[in-house]
Amino acid sequence: MREFEILPDPDDPRLSETVSGLDQDGKPIEATVVTERPLTLFLNSREIVTMMTIGDHADLLAVGYLLNQHMLKDDDEITAIEYEEDIETIVVRTARETNYEEKLKKKIRTSGCAQGTVFGDLMENFDKVNLSKEAEIRTSWIYGLSRKINTAPSLYLKAGAIHGCVLCAGDRPLVYMEDVGRHNAVDKIAGYMFMNKVPADDKIFYTTGRLTSEMVIKTVHMGIPVLISRSGFTAWGVDLARKANLTLIGRAKGKRFIALAGTERLIYDADAKAVAEEDKRHGRKGSAEDGARVNDLADG
Questions:
Q1: Is residue 273 part of a domain?
Q2: Cα separation of 193 and 184, whole Å?
Q3: In this prediction, what percent of the chain has a pLDDT beyond 90?
Q4: 169 within domain boundaries
Q5: Nearest residue to 269 via CA among 181, 191, 170
Q6: Distance between CA atoms of 30 and 293, rounded to whole angstroms?
Q7: What is the domain range of residue 262?
Q8: Domain count, the chain
């Protein structure tokens, strides 16, 4: 796969809009804000969930969601994906007959943004996943990935208020997805890997969001051995990563990072002193005044 096989398209008019308001001094401003719209997912004839999403890559989001909820199996044959954008509905059809009535009764609201939900058997088969012991993560890759991802065109840099997740190989970002909830961005990548038969055992997963239990569980179920974030950790996320032998690296900004699980995969091949600090524009705490373009409307 080539670098940035899929990259965010900040110029897609469906994904953001401009709204007018006032700033802290009472001056008129225009701010770019991300869109948020519902997408109702059906698996065959069964309604599964309504997700809030920015609206791109609906097919990958639907497939990835079903995979990460264990409603699709690795060997399932998808016979059709029917997306009706005007009624905000997508149907995934499979050769296998499915029935998840009992599963749909057990839901857990996660700590993810945009009301992430997983079903009650989220730990199903978690202990059976064997992550690659041959996989490695070089410190030069961490620095290289952070630089490339944070400076790539993105909806975040245009409007803020969004999470990004990136599938990587070595120091190469391969698939970069964004959404209002990090769980959606993860699911899009899971869907891409399933639809394109991308192997997981030599990959790295990079996210801008917190390293929560949900992020760890999804990464482990995807079979990816390394998870990196710009953000921090939760205690349960660390505990689960250690149980699964997932390499967990957080607070990766500029020349700094912290590894709290799977540290045997780390190879220190770069001098941190030679790495430049992250510039403020790509600090991901806010983008261009959090997406605001200040215009003095009174002056035209």
A1: yes
A2: 14
A3: 73
A4: yes
A5: 170
A6: 6
A7: 137-291
A8: 2
